[in-house]
From TrEMBL, chain A:
InterPro entries: Autotransporte_beta_dom_sf, Cu-R_B_prcur. Pfam families: CopB. GO terms for biological process: intracellular copper ion homeostasis. One of its GO terms (cellular component) is cell outer membrane. GO terms for molecular function: copper ion binding. The keyword Transcription regulation does not apply. This is Copper resistance protein B. Residues 1-20 form the signal peptide. Keywords: Signal. The keyword Signal applies. It comes from the Bacteria.
Automatic annotation (TrEMBL), chain B:
GO terms for cellular component: periplasmic space. It comes from Hyphomonas chukchiensis. Residues 1-26 form the signal peptide. Residues 53-159, 239-333, 489-608 form the Plastocyanin-like domain. Residues 618-667 are annotated as: Disordered. Keywords: Copper, Metal-binding, Oxidoreductase, Signal. The lineage of its organism: Bacteria, Pseudomonadati, Pseudomonadota, Alphaproteobacteria, Hyphomonadales. PANTHER family: FI03373P-RELATED, MULTI-COPPER OXIDASE. This is Copper-binding protein. Residues 618-630, 639-667 have a biased composition (Basic and acidic residues). The keyword Nucleotide-binding does not apply. Pfam families: Cu-oxidase, Cu-oxidase_2, Cu-oxidase_3. The keyword Metal-binding applies.
């Protein structure tokens, strides 16, 4: 018995390279009836169109005006991706534009390679470039996906060209009040491993935003929303703000649009 | 239960009434089938193109055959040589697949598998004669054209007497229509897989459940599903309002109309030609007697409702006595909407449209995890290991036999009885046929593996457990004609239906069609068991081209009357076995008939390899194998004369070495 097995395995291994050279199609019986090249083309087509199609997704997750006592701010948080089921190229961008002073307060773009590592999580790595303030570049390593109990999470660490290490974590949840009316709590926290005086950022937990948005999906791809958000700064970051005569926390009303294509 | 005498009475009565009128197939459309253009004879000219249509009162554009949705009814006779000239006026390739028809494989119409497809401006002539009769259908196998209206019905009239007697007949083709493009719909599913589901559980449902069952139980239930990121309302990927459901191209508002005279036996040939929708079919107040399933006659079974997978067909007889309008209701499985037609004593009547029923919610059993059901399941599985499956061929030698090309061995000279296909001593040790099963691991494409799959053939389908009237289960179906091949299968191929709903990835054994490097191989002449295990949370209508399979019903394996089908719904966490006689050599498509599951990768090819010799040139490594050391003793060596077997014709190059894992070899 064992000898048979051994011989069998030997036979398999001995003949394997021969098979590899043949590069035979997975099936080919129709080649007897039709032009071989045409069949090869059609075979390639059906295979690639059943599981290997790529998609382009564009999404404005938050495109909103935040109203506070100090004035209104336009905030965007969007992404686009292109790719297949496992590997995708992601672009992410977010920023604030002050409607009061007519200037960009914060803006960044990220270009990330995304690779699915489990049923619900993608590992993402790439670069982030800060348009405002000060044009820093960061290396990015993050994890994005769906945590148990339907929490959508996105966590990333950033190592800047100045050597600063920071991190950001976002989590969203959705309560379906009806099939189209959805209440979405959202939390975003930023952390820093060190004090960054240039950015008026202290070490530790630097900021925490907690919001509640109520959207109505007129169609799934387009939903206007309203909501409230509490935005707070902590530790050294709060000290910087207070030294500048600003509040370390505030509450804002938001109104915006969530849309995807 | 089938009552032979009653059935014969039906037949006699039908023939008496039928004799007065023209044969059913020769009647004008006014006497039945009206609303669908009909073509009959043995030469058919079909043109595939784009054309404007009006659906549910709204102008839209279809892709289809001869300018109608559904396409024309094709009617011909069993055994007739027919020619179908299909011209393509589209800007892209097209094709027509004849669903359920036993055609030569190069006429099966799957681009890239059985032929190259039909190029724009070209005409392809399909020629075949089929040895079967019944209700079938056709549809495109190119791109997503099926969703846009490229489907239509086929009736093959029997060569001899029809065992089903009827006075009048109608074809009812069920469909799901979207006014958007199917490509866009598929893209939406890939990006946000739950975006077309408007039947999700809401906060309101939670409050309702909490008041009924207590807040703890309602929370526990949410926690169980939430922990796995699965939705118990994932009943259909696409429902209303994206879809408008149709009967012969008509919505409920368009009210497809059928007429009858009270007391007539009306045959309804129902075809689920939709892209993605399983339907619950019922006619309130009118029992339906199922006489055919997938074009194959079954012993008459009277029911009030049945669930119909995409691509399945059922012929039912109804005998309305009252001169009133009856509703024919096709309700989508997610109960987001329905299509209603009217069967009335006069044209133009409108039956009362029933209210949509409450949306069903999946249970943990659908995940293959219900502990209460596990005992039950193992009982079923116990009865599923029948004597018919037993072989006296066992262990190693059988494993060795498996990867060899049995097809190339001359079976006719092998004494199968002597090989131990007969029943072994029932008191002896349980012996199983060799089973080929891939290891499935969780990963990006596989979110769940059913821990305890079990046969669910005795269940009517999602949402029909508690409807308060008689529902069909597969386990009730029996073929009217004896099964042509009752041999026990020589081997079993297990295939898992796998998915990650969140990423909208669908596959067999975790391998998308785009990743397939090797077809599933059957050998001409062999009897093989295909066992399908559903690791996903959705029911999948699985279709195998080119052959009928016998649905192995636990407890009825040896009845010789197993229902023969071309498409079978595999329920969530279900384990379904079908026995197949590999007869028709060729490459045959094998896939989930939910269009976007297929497009996402839930497809494979089954190659039936010819029994005749293959060239010696391929014969690498043969000499390395020492046949004398193989243990054939338990195969009944005495009766099996190796000298009569042509070993030189065994094609070792076709040996499926990959499929044979270490574990297989150790077993």
């Amino acid at each position: 018995m064992i000898r048979t097995l051994a011989l069998f395995i030997f036979a398999v291994s001995a003949s394997a390279p021969v098979f590899a050279e043949e590069s035979s199609p997975p099936w080919s019986m129709a080649d007897q009836y039709f032009d071989t090249d045409e069949m090869a083309h059609a075979r390639h087509h059906i295979l690639s169109h059943h599981g290997a199609t790529r998609q382009l997704s564009i999404m404005a997750d938050r495109l909103e005006v935040q109203s506070a006592d100090e004035g209104d701010t336009l905030v965007w948080d969007g992404n686009a991706w292109y790719g297949g089921d496992v590997n995708k190229l992601w672009l992410k961008s977010e920023g604030d534009y002050s409607l009061e002073s007519d200037e960009l307060e914060e803006a960044e773009v990220q270009a990330l390679w995304s690779h699915a590592i489990s049923p619900y999580f993608d590992l993402q790595g790439g670069l982030r470039y800060d348009l405002e303030p000060k044009g820093r570049t960061h290396a990015v390593l993050g994890l994005q996906g769906l945590a148990p109990y339907w929490f959508e999470v996105d966590a990333a660490a950033f190592l800047s060209s100045e050597g600063d290490l920071t991190a950001r974590m976002e989590a969203e949840y959705e309560f379906r009040l009806t099939q189209r009316l959805i209440l979405q709590p959202r939390v975003e926290a930023e952390l820093s491993a060190q004090d960054i005086p240039d950015l008026e950022t202290g070490s530790g937990l630097t900021s925490l935003n907690a919001g509640l948005r109520l959207r109505y999906e007129i169609i799934r791809e387009f939903a206007p929303y309203i909501g409230v958000e509490w935005q707070g700064s902590f530790g050294g970051t709060a000290d910087y703000l207070e030294a500048a005569g600003e509040d370390s926390d505030r509450a804002v009303f938001v109104a915006g649009i969530r849309a995807w294509f | 239960m089938f009552n032979r005498r009653r059935f014969l009475q039906y037949t006699a009565a039908g023939m008496a009434t039928g004799a007065a009128a023209a044969p059913a197939w020769a009647r004008t459309s006014g006497e039945g089938n009206f609303g669908i253009p009909m073509l009959q004879g043995n030469q058919f000219d079909l043109t595939v193109g784009k054309f404007p249509v009006r659906i549910n009162g709204r102008a839209t554009e279809a892709t289809g055959v001869n300018g109608s949705v559904p396409g024309p009814l094709l009617r011909f006779r069993e055994g007739d040589e027919i020619t179908l000239n299909v011209s393509n006026t589209l800007a892209v390739d097209t094709s027509i697949h004849w669903h359920g028809l036993l055609v030569p494989f190069q006429m099966d119409g799957v681009p890239g598998v059985s032929f190259p497809g039909i190029r724009p401006g070209e005409t392809f002539s399909y020629k075949y004669a089929v040895p079967q009769n019944g209700t079938y259908w056709y549809h495109s196998h190119s791109g997503l054209q099926e969703q846009s209206g490229h489907y239509g019905p086929i009736i093959i009239d029997p060569k001899g007497a029809d065992p089903v007697a009827y006075d009048r007949e109608y074809v009812l083709v069920l469909g799901d229509w979207t006014y958007g493009t199917p490509e866009r719909l598929f893209a939406k599913l890939k990006k946000h897989s739950d975006s077309q589901n408007f039947q999700q559980r809401t906060v309101g449902d939670f409050l309702h459940d909490a008041s009924e069952e207590g807040i703890g139980a309602a929370l526990d239930d949410r926690a169980m599903w939430g922990a796995m990121c699965m939705s118990p309302r994932d009943l259909a990927d696409v429902g209303a309002p994206t879809y408008t459901y149709l009967i012969n191209g008509r919505s409920t508002a368009d009210n497809f109309n059928m007429v009858f005279n009270p007391g007539e036996r009306v045959r309804l040939r129902i075809i689920n030609g939709s892209a993605m929708t399983l339907f619950n079919v019922r006619m309130p107040g009118l029992p339906m007697t199922i006489v055919q399933a997938d074009g194959q006659h079954v012993q008459p079974l009277e029911v009030d409702e049945f669930q119909m997978g995409v691509a399945e067909t059922y012929d039912v007889i109804v005998t309305p006595q009252a001169a009133e309008a009856f509703a024919f209701v096709a309700e989508s499985i997610d109960r987001s909407r329905q299509a209603v037609a009217t069967l009335g004593p006069r044209p133009g009547m409108r039956a009362a449209v029933p209210q949509l029923r409450a949306v069903p919610t999946l249970s943990m059993k659908d995940m293959g995890m219900d502990h209460a059901a596990m005992g039950h399941g193992s009982m079923e599985m116990g009865s599923e290991a029948p004597a018919a499956m037993d072989h006296s061929m066992k262990g190693m030698d059988h494993d060795m036999a498996m990867p060899m090309d049995h097809g190339a061995m001359d079976h006719s000279k092998m004494d199968h009885a002597a090989m131990g296909h007969v029943m072994p001593d029932p008191t002896g040790p349980a012996v199983q046929m060799v089973s080929i099963e891939a290891d499935i691991e969780k990963g990006p494409g596989v979110a769940n593996i059913a821990a305890m799959p079990m046969s669910r053939l005795n269940e009517p389908g999602i949402g029909l457990d508690d409807v308060g009237h008689r529902t069909m289960t597969y386990s009730q179906l029996r073929s009217l004609e004896p099964n042509p091949d009752t041999r026990a299968p020589g081997r079993e191929i297990v295939i898992h239906l796998t998915s990650n709903m969140e990423r909208y990835m669908w596959s067999f054994d975790g391998v998308k069609f785009s990743e397939v490097t090797e077809a599933i191989r059957f050998h001409e002449g062999e009897r093989v068991r295909l066992t399908l295990i559903n690791d996903t949370m959705m029911p999948h209508p699985i279709h195998l081209h080119g052959m009928f399979f016998d649905l192995v019903i636990p407890g009825a394996e040896t009845s010789g009357r197993l229902p023969r089908k071309h498409t079978v719904i595999v329920k969530p966490a279900d384990k379904v076995s079908v026995d197949i006689t590999a007869e028709h050599v060729g490459d045959w498509a094998f896939h989930c008939h939910l269009l976007y599951h297929m497009a996402a990768g839930m497809m494979q090819v089954v190659s039936i390899l010819p029994a005749e010799a293959t060239p010696m040139e391929d014969h690498q490594g043969h000499q390395m194998m020492d046949h004398s050391t193989m243990d054939h003793s338990s195969m009944g060596q005495g009766e099996m004369d190796h000298s009569k077997m042509d070993h030189s014709k065994m094609d070792h190059s076709k040996m499926n070495h990959d499929a044979m894992s270490e574990e297989d070899m150790k077993r």
